[in-house]
Amino acid sequence: MFYNCKGGIPINHHHSLPIEAIDTLENIQGTFPGARRAHAKGLFYKGNFTPNGKAIPYTTAAHLQNENVPVTVRFSNSPPNPASADLLTPFKGMSVQFHLADGTASHLVSTTIPIFITKDPETFIDMLKTLTAEKTGLEKVDLGVGALTILKKYPDRKHIAHAFKEQFKQLPTSYAQLHYYPIHAFYFVNKEGNRQAIKYEWQPIEMEETSSQQSGASITSPDYLSEELNNRVKKGSVSFNLIIRLGLENDSTDDPTDAWPDDREKIVVGQLTLEEAIFPNEPILFDPTIVTKGIELTDDPILHFRHDAYAVSYSRRSKNE
Fold this sequence. Notes:
By secondary structure, the chain is α+β, with helices and mostly antiparallel strands. Helix content is 25%, strand content 23%.
């Protein structure tokens, strides 16, 4: 079962920023007809999510109660080129659709960096245009001249540049060993109507074998991460814990550049296990604003901007543009 928003999803035509953002991405990276404008290269799995009931005091969300839920999971590289080499792109993605019993879905869209580069769409687009002017592109392993120019223009982003540099220190050896962060805060709503601000994290559950023992893939292969993960899934389970962090009253819920202090309480609320690779022949959409009852969106402008930008990208790739 897939949630694919056939017929497209609504775009906020009263605001040109989403279209401008996608146009700017295409100017930087080129256009690959039929592909996502970012995270174009990916692989899909079906799996199962088992909640442990520990989220029940905070939310009525159907997939976080006591019943197992089927899921569709996509792992991806960040560039728009579906043929990009795994080695050249340290930023990875993990997107999940929880398929609920009533036929709807709730989505989580995550990346390996825990924060976003800016808290408003206008600045994000300006940063993209800076990269365009410097002609550095977004596939460079070195942050390059464009990033230095951005830091000069936005010196308050130094902590974000540090977070990005951390991604380059060690090349990933497996999608199954990475931590993934949905970046944004959300509100959980319980049966009494009380709201609790939370942030998510997918934490890998390590298997006994090391990746070198498990994997038949060579890092010299342009598809080594896909090959490695497929080998893991064939030989046994690949699992992740879903963790929520409980925000306090003064923690920001509308700023995705704010990672929240490390001392916030963390609760494991369930476990996701991959079952087998799948090869869908329809354009599946993962949208971070699609959430089920018991979860509410915050006022984060980047979160809502992503909905509109994804709509533009989805419309273009659905038309093979």
